[in-house]
Structures are given as C-alpha cells and as structure tokens.
Amino acid sequence: MNLKQHPVISSVNLLVENLQRTMKFYIDVLGFKVLEETDTEATLTADGKTPILTLEQPSDIQKRTRSTGLYHIAFLLPNRSDLADIIHYFIKTQYPLQGASDHHVSEALYLADPEGNGIEIYIDRPTDQWKWDGDQVHMTTVALDIESILREASTEGWKGMPEQTLVGHIHLQVNELQKTKQFYCDLLGFEPVLNYGSQALFISKHRYHHHIGMNTWGSAGAPAPAENSAGLKWFTILVPDENELQAVKDRLQAAGEYIAEEQGSFITKDPAGIRVRLSVK
C-alpha cells in the first residue's frame, strides 16, 4: 500500500482561537511551511505546493465543548530516520509528548497543538510485515522501541516536515458507531478493517491499515460541534475520478444525506455532524 500512489485523506481544516499561536506551533515546532496566509487564515504545506493543513480563525470563534469532532490528525513521515530525527528534536527541545506506541503496522508519537487538537506523527512498517486475518488487520498498542528508532537517525537531523509528508489518516470522535460505519462504508466506499471492541472502528481503502479511525471514548451520545466551534471544520477525502465522485454523490442523495456543492467538489456531513469534503485526486 503506497499512499503516494493512493492518497485518500489529503488535507484537514481546523478552526482555531488564536491563529498566530497555532501557526507558530505548526511552523516552528513541527516544521511545516506557509503556502498561503491572510489575517484570519493560513494554509500550510510540507512540500511547498500541496495544502496539508488549513488554520482559520473566525471572528466569532467559540471554545470547543464536549462534542463530536477530531480525535487526532496523523501525519505520515516517509522514513524511519525521519521519525528518529524528530524524536531527537523533541528530546533536545523538551517538547512534551502524550505517548509513543508500536501498533505493529506502524510506529507512532502522540502530542497536541496549543489548542488541544490531537496529533499523531508516525511511520508505516513495510506492508509485507502486516498481518491480516481475512479482512481484519492485526494492530497492537505496545511501548515504542525508542532506542531502536534512534539508531536510524540521519546525520543532518530534523529539518522540518519532509516534503513527502502526508495526512496518513484521521481519527474522529463520533457519537454512535454503527450509523457512522454505514455512512463511510456503504455510502463513501470504505471497508472496515478492525473492530476495536464496541467503542472503536478502523476503516480504509486499498487494504491500508486505516485511513479513518472512529471512537466513542468520551463522545458517546455527544452533539455535533457548533458551526463556529474551535476544532475540526472539515477534512478532505480524495476519490480517483469524476465518475467515482458522481457515484458517491448519487448514493448520498439517494440516502437523503446533506450535500453542499463546491466547484469541482462537495461537502457532506457524517452522522456525527462532522463535515467531509470530497474531491477528485
């Protein structure tokens, strides 16, 4: 599974309370670059040309309360040496991490931006090392072998997000799993690849370990966020071509789902009230 060949989640839009403070984190701490910037909005990139994260500060922004929305954005680095370099960097700068886990298919760090939005920074293990039981992928959550990773550090050290960095997946807080599963799988074309008890589910395309995670940890029965609530505004799913985009739109319309047209794309809402933008690659 090569996400460069099969990108699925392309970008994420966040509403923030303090644009300058949040920009400073993503640029100075994580090493993204500014692609476009206004007084109220900034689009960030890893390669200097492709949008990967947009930060927007509305004039009437509200603090996020208990609601559905973002659990974390997961930035996929191209090489294990990149993960080693950023670990060295976090040790040197003493930036606080929230966790570090080996998921068998991947190795990951966890932290948060200044507004509490969750972030995962990870690398994938080679796909021939993944284990599948039919259509279910084997994933674990065990301690990360930091020493093993650090042995692969580059001589250059951390120089900011590598150009090949992608949004590997996104993890959502939803209020109910079954209806959300039906929306993403039956209407948007994803496949379930791991049921994590009764409170979490992982889904993907092209037999990736997951492009979207969803859980009800702390959000079971929660309302959708307000229009101007800080947090996730929308995320973008890419489809291969115009025919597939139209097919998805037809399924959503037949199911009576919300659709807002955009030039060359459209926005819908999942059962948790989370906005999803669909666009052609």
UniProtKB/TrEMBL annotation:
UniProt signal peptide: none
The keyword Metal-binding is annotated on this UniProt entry: yes
UniProt keyword list: Metal-binding
InterPro entries found in the cross-reference section: Glyas_Bleomycin-R_OHBP_Dase (IPR029068), Glyas_Fos-R_dOase_dom (IPR004360), Glyoxalase_1_CS (IPR018146), VOC_core (IPR037523)
Residues covered by the VOC domain: 8-124, 166-281
Residue runs in coiled coils: none
Family matches, as Pfam families: Glyoxalase
PROSITE patterns per the UniProt record, alphabetical: GLYOXALASE_I_1, VOC
Keyword Transmembrane: no
The protein's name in its UniProt record: VOC family protein
Organism of provenance: Lederbergia graminis
